């Protein structure tokens, strides 16, 4: 797929993968070898497992892949983490605070390298890569500053927290959770995401380990490592972020074992339009909804629109979606130019791009109406680069019920629209996936919003504005099949990974009860 950009672009100086890798070798030689990352367990960095080949979604070039550990090695790592947990849980809180704060200072010092790794490994535009790093640092610092009342009367868990997270937010989700869990008195284990982010996560863990934070980092097949990382009796809590299929398997395992758990799973987050007139506000927000190509658990891929307003909706939506800026996140006109301002780059890999393209083609063949398709000529590429992981934004009207786009989150830059005529149809369409993390209803009348909002099955609901995971004291969870286990955010994250009174019922979504914060 050739680039059709008029101006010949070049790679911004000092930002090649080789540049980033050499900086990793210099900053953390204990964690990086010539051509591979190492795993960390039992206080040592180890060349366990065969390093899998990997390519960058940005241009298809080779990058470092995660080593593939076997189950027996992972079990050894878990046992070693339990030993560290038993020591760390008795470390006084002021010392834990000091060690985590020192880690934050180190992450801040190397924030640009961490962000550059995110660009190459998972295709984030520079603005969003920096935001991922900064949100992790700022979020954990909030806990460092205010941890005392959160842990008063509480104790660490009996074993380490096992973290299994998807690839899209290695810093602001995974590293953030790990450091707060450690601050609360737990040793922490992270499984490196298979699809991307292993070098960024390795560097972050190296900086934490230097400060004495009890971090374990392993990588490999989820299926092969789940016995150790999910079912092992040494594990005190499982924290999972990912899809419903894998999440269901994890949920079954932790339910059987009665193990503490936090399982964030996807839902189809919807944006309803009903008796609405503030179209300028909608036009302004649409490009923001495409940040990172909608590869977020809190993305909004579905608009549910009152049929009588569809013409006005399109007049507001289409000009906005045509402004999206897509391309190689490091491609500039001159080597010393600022980073390009993009809404998104590639999706996570070429296989995902093909899957999305196939889903769109199939939906159209079965009756979906294409309302917008981005043009290749509007995309910024380097001359001759591989572009197989790039997907142009697409908007479809009425995806057929047989299409995955009808009932599941696409995790890519694909919007779908369904039209409704009654409030009952609006609610049914907004609740299409048995629970969601977020939803938004745009309606002029506050009384209408107040009446309909409680019937929308999402943990966070916005009126005319998008909701997200949030930071610091903002709580987060999900309803229905989008979440299982303890809710998090604010003090709830600390409560989820510590023990309180014997009869305590944590806010969350459990098989035996559901408790709102």
Secondary structure elements and pairings:
Layout (H helix, E strand, L loop, with lengths): L9 E2 L5 H11 L11 E3 L2 E3 L3 E2 L2 E2 L6 E2 L3 E2 L2 H18 L4 H17 L1 H12 L3 H26 L3 E2 L4 E5 L4 H14 L4 E4 L6 H13 L4 E4 L3 H10 L5 E6 L1 H14 L2 E6 L4 E4 L5 H11 L12 E5 L3 H12 L4 E2 L3 E2 L17 H16 L3 E5 L5 E2 L13 E4 L6 H4 L6 E7 L2 H8 L5 E7 L3 H7 L5 E6 L19 E4 L4 H6 L1 E2 L8 E2 L4 E2 L2
Parallel strand pairs: 9-10, 9-12, 10-11, 12-13, 14-15, 14-22, 15-21, 16-19, 20-21, 22-23
Antiparallel strand pairs: 1-17, 2-3, 4-7, 5-6, 8-25, 13-24, 18-20, 24-26, 26-27
InterPro entries: Ald_DH/histidinol_DH, Ald_DH_C, Ald_DH_N, Aldehyde_DH_dom
Protein name: Aldehyde dehydrogenase family protein
Keywords: Oxidoreductase
Task: Describe what you observe in this structure.
The chain contains 16 helices and 27 strands. It is of the alpha/beta class and 517 residues long. It has two domains: 67-265 and 471-498, Aldehyde Dehydrogenase, Chain A, domain 1; 270-463, Aldehyde Dehydrogenase, Chain A, domain 2 (3-Layer(aba) Sandwich), CATH 3.40.309. The radius of gyration is 23 Å and the shape is globular. The N and C termini lie far apart (50 Å).
How many domains? The number is 2
Q: Estimate the mean pLDDT confidence.
A: 96
CATH class of the largest domain: Alpha Beta
Q: Shape, please?
A: globular
Query: What summary fits the major beta sheet?
Result: 8 strands, mixed
Query: What structural class should be given to the helix and strand makeup?
Result: alpha/beta
**Strand portion:** 15-25%
Kindly report the CATH topology of the largest domain.
Aldehyde Dehydrogenase, Chain A, domain 1
CATH architecture of the largest domain: 3-Layer(aba) Sandwich
Numbering strands along the chain, what is their spatial order in the largest sheet? 11-10-9-12-13-24-26-27
The helical percent reads 25-40%
Cα-atom radius of gyration: 23 Å
Gap between N and C termini: 50 Å
Number of helices: 16
Low-pLDDT residue spans: 1-5
CATH superfamily of the largest domain: Aldehyde Dehydrogenase, Chain A, domain 1
Number of strands: 27
């Amino acid at each position: 797929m050739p680039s059709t950009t008029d101006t010949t672009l070049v790679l911004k100086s000092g930002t090649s993968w080789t540049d980033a890798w050499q900086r990793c070798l210099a900053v953390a030689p204990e964690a990086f070898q010539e051509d591979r990352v190492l795993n960390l367990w039992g206080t040592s960095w180890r060349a366990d497992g065969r390093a899998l080949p990997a390519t960058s979604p940005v241009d298809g070039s080779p990058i470092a892949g995660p080593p593939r550990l076997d189950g027996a090695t992972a079990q050894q790592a878990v046992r070693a983490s339990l030993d560290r947990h038993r020591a760390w849980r008795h470390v006084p809180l002021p010392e834990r605070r000091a060690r985590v704060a020192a880690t934050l200072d180190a992450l801040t010092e190397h924030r640009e390298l961490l962000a550059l790794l995110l660009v190459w490994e998972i295709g984030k535009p520079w603005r969003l890569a920096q935001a991922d790093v900064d949100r992790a640092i700022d979020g954990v610092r909030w806990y460092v500053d205010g941890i005392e009342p959160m842990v008063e009367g509480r104790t660490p868990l009996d074993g380490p927290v096992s973290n299994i997270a998807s690839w899209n937010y290695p810093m602001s989700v995974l590293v953030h959770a790990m450091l707060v869990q450690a601050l609360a008195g737990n040793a922490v284990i992270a499984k490196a995401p298979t699809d991307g982010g292993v070098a960024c996560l390795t560097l972050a863990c190296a900086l934490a380990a230097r400060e004495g934070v009890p971090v374990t980092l392993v990588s490999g097949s989820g299926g092969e490592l789940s016995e150790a990382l999910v079912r092992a009796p040494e594990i005190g809590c499982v924290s999972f972020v990912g899809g419903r299929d894998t999440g269901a398997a994890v949920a079954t395992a932790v339910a059987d074992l009665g193990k503490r758990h936090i399982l964030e799973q996807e839902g189809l987050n919807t944006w309803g339009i009903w008796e609405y007139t503030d179209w300028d506000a909608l036009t302004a927000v649409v490009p923001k909804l495409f940040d990172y190509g909608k590869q977020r658990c809190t993305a909004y891929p579905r608009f549910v629109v009152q049929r009588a307003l569809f013409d006005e909706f399109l007049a507001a939506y289409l000009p906005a979606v045509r402004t999206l800026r897509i391309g190689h996140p490091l491609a500039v006109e001159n080597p010393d130019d600022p980073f390009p301002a993009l809404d998104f780059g590639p999706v996570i890999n070429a296989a995902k791009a093909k899957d999305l393209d196939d889903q769109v083609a199939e939906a159209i063949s079965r009756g979906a109406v294409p309302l917008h398709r981005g043009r290749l000529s509007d995309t910024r590429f380097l001359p001759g680069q591989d572009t197989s992981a790039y997907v142009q934004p697409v908007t479809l009207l009425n995806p057929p019920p047989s299409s995955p786009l009808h009932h599941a989150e696409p995790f890519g830059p694909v919007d779908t629209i369904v039209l409704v005529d009654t409030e009952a149809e609006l609610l049914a369409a907004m609740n299409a996936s048995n629970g969601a993390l977020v939803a938004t209803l745009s309606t002029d009348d506050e009384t209408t919003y107040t009446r309909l909002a409680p019937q929308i099955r999402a943990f966070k609901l916005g009126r005319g504005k998008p909701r997200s995971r949030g930071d610091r004291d903002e709580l987060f969870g999900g309803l229905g099949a989008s979440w299982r286990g303890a809710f998090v955010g604010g003090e709830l994250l600390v409560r989820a990974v510590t023990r309180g009174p014997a009869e305590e019922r944590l806010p969350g979504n459990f098989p035996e009860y559901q408790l709102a914060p």
